[in-house]
User: Fold these one by one.
Assistant:
Number 1:
Amino acid sequence: MKQNGVFITFEGMDGSGKTTQMHRLAARLRAMGRTVLETAEPGGTPIGQKIRRILLDSANQELSPSAELLLYFASRAQNVDEWIRPALARGEIVLADRFTDSSRVYQGRGRGLGEEAVMALDRIACRGLQPRLTILVEIDAETSLARARARNAAEPHCETRMDDQSLEFHHAVYQAYRDLARSEPERFRVVDGRAPIEAIEERVWEAVSPHV
């Protein structure tokens, strides 16, 4: 009997460890015999990767908030149409490193564009697609920036445009994530990103296992 597809997203500030946890969950599910698609935003698809380079390039500081939001949703629309919906239709488990919730907090709150603008684009790009479960790996703004900058120093690259934003911006994002999780407790599961990696993995599995 064909299983229904399951869409699970990982959210959190840069350096939270969400990507590591997504990979660990994917490996665990594959070991159980499940077919898993891992994707990330911005990026994922080949077209999305090209958009990602524009969005995260530290040289593009003049990118306007509205253009930024539109580019994120362009990448997301391609991801939904090319990868996510087909995988769900095949009965696969789809794990996404960020989805619309990131735009709600970074562009909606952090850039001040508002929830209405973000969700209007979500209706066009995602056409009602919502995660069944969202794991929020929570760390504070100061920890996020410290981890991101340590990573960037160890592995120099140009994808630092969002890390380069002000501390006030990152504080707004942190609070927006907390508010979002409180507003949708049936979908969000919050785990402490400062805990040991193995402990976080077990908390993630406790949240995910009822759905898979």
Number 2:
Amino acid sequence: MLIQRVLTAALALPMLLWVIVRGERWQMLAVFLACVAISVHELSSMVVPSLEAKILGEEHRSKKIVGTFWYLAGIVISVILFFIATQGDYDTGRSGIALGFVVLMLVGVFTANSIDRSMIRTIGLLVTMGYAVVPWLAVWDLYILKEKSVYLFLLFTIVMGCDTGAYFGGRAFGKRKLAPNLSPKKTWEGAFFGILTAILSSLALNHYYGQTLGTDFLVGVTALFGGIAGILGDLLESGFKRFAGVKDSGVIFPGHGGFLDRVDAIIIAAPVVWVFVYNFLLPK
């Protein structure tokens, strides 16, 4: 399993870095649109059938949602709205997302043969929109914000540093469970080392860029809260999987599970890092 994880990362990371550094903006947008589509697919596939089973009874669990109208509509609407939001100004983006929530509610309500199933689909689509679409706009903003996408690399450094530190720190020193109901393997000690690694790696990145990201203090504070958000994102996605009764969100990456299993920390950390970048790190 570890060999699969290393090989998958060794193949995927260089391709992603090439697109960010050398690729055209339209190529990166295509990557983001794919991220949105896959995120919506995986989350809706977990949440909606599980809601049906828990509310209506196990015998009413959807046997197949892939290919159904409401499922395809959710993906298409999410992708279109993300595309629109990245083409205009912030007011256009906010208006588009608001419209998206309304349209998804209409899709959920009018594509089922019972009021219970209508409400279940509506809840599932709204949760999917809020979790699997909106945070990617924060990632996109970090990508286009500054030359060479340095703030996007700051986000990646925080998340990957925290994940690496938490993994090795937890294995070496982990004793006290962080959230046993959500993820029994995560510990407070692992979280501490993860956040510490996120801060140190972010400071190293700042010095690599000649301290152009901001002062070390503000970069460290951004890494602190970004690291905490990343850990919470990991736990949140674990909650979705436990709710759905699945081990992985999907099987897209050999050795890594689903796509959301790899980006769960980024999804929650990105809006937090975005807030600190826009309010504190950007030159006034």
